[in-house]
């Protein structure tokens, strides 16, 4: 019996020993993990700031994330007088109601707060410098687009097209050590952590911020509603895209209920083209016959076709006109006769070759509308041919589409699709270029040279003289495009000008649309000149 009791006791001691060893093992092996878990449970991790990726211009200038912001880290329990804390924060607090701020101040939990000025730091209050994505008026708002109220998702423009790339631009957090009751511990500093907050990742546009600024200023100087497109003639890269009026993100709720169309990107929307279409007619005849139109046409202020009178913009008539006079004076009867000799289907084919019926895609979900062209017809009525010759009726195109058409003639008939994306940048700032575009010869170099020469003469002695920049040369075509609408009893007529400069070696294409500008010569051509002079001054270093 005694030996049995001893055996049982011995077994019990052995078991206790094994358990003791197991506990010791857990303490040694798992100790750091358990300790870290406990530590995490005693920390409050606050989001100080989240940042989307950056959108750059072609020279690496940040178009967003270039504003400055301040974030306060507040630990209310360090303030005996919570009302005094509230009164300190209320005048400087941003993006928060007074009621919500008061609730945060009355709690014991630490919180962050965006403030409009730097406060003196004290125990329980720390100020951190952060980045503001959009601040006031920005360049190219219709291209950049807008984001959700929390700033974390793109809703339009580049923000939406590259949302996946831009979504993760980095984050800054703060860690506050708490006691067992959830109150911050005195004597322990707030720890700040950056999760790629200094990342350079983003997308690079072809837009040149300096040229964009010049174009936007010209728009503000000359019209209330309209659009401007500036592209390089030899590359098709867009250097400026303006839609007037613009918008600022801080007033989005106002724009959503506005009938002024601030959010509409007019540069990518369709408009009646008017006499700009005469470029197409001229090219169509040259391509068909292999030579310029060589007939003279008499204008007495209009021409009757199919029982319908088509008026010329010059009521007294231009008299007899050859190609140079007919083109530079934009004589309607001249172009109607040339269209009849060219053929309706040949003209529509040329418009398609020049891309007027094609959508211009810049990125996923970001494009200029496809223009509108009438269908081909083997028996087109004479009145339809006449209407088409002068760009009236259902013919429509976007300012971007007209810039594309002009680029073809400025570049010896070689079409390079307009582009907006230069490439992307990774976190370290390494640039990866976008996939190159493929061009094509859409008209003979001789045809392009003919049209280009006529456009130059238009600016020398025709309807486009007000477009010529001082100290340089230009070529272009004016238009006063009838819309068929009436406003306050008057016909709505858009003023357009599309052209290039310098004339002898085109570097830039500029298209200007002025809604209800009445006359391309009066409303649009001077805008072209101001932009061209601005670019020349920029490149001349003045």
TrEMBL record:
InterPro entries the UniProt entry points to: Beta-lactam/transpept (IPR050515), Beta-lactam/transpept-like (IPR012338), PBP_dimer (IPR005311), PBP_dimer_sf (IPR036138), PCN-bd_Tpept (IPR001460)
Question: Organism's domain of life?
Answer: Bacteria
Which EC numbers characterise this protein's activity in its record?
3.5.2.6
- Gene Ontology MF, one: beta-lactamase activity
The residues covered by the Penicillin-binding protein dimerisation domain are 51-186
Question: Can you quote a single GO CC term?
Answer: plasma membrane
Instruction: Give the enzyme class.
Output: hydrolase
Print the keywords alphabetically. Answer: Antibiotic resistance, Hydrolase, Membrane, Signal
Q: Where is this region: Disordered?
A: 461-483
Write down the SUPFAM superfamilies for this protein, in alphabetical order: beta-lactamase/transpeptidase-like, Penicillin binding protein dimerisation domain
Q: Which GO terms describe its biological process?
A: cell wall organization; response to antibiotic
Reactions performed catalytically: a beta-lactam + H2O = a substituted beta-amino acid
For this UniProt entry, what is the primary localization, expressed as one broad class? membrane
- Compartments where found: Membrane
Which residues are in the Penicillin-binding protein transpeptidase domain?
Answer: 226-532
PANTHER family per record: BETA-LACTAMASE YBXI-RELATED (PTHR30627:SF6), PEPTIDOGLYCAN D,D-TRANSPEPTIDASE (PTHR30627)
Q: Which family does it belong to?
A: Belongs to the class-D beta-lactamase family. Belongs to the transpeptidase family.
| Annotated protein name in UniProt | beta-lactamase
Record the organism.
Feifania hominis
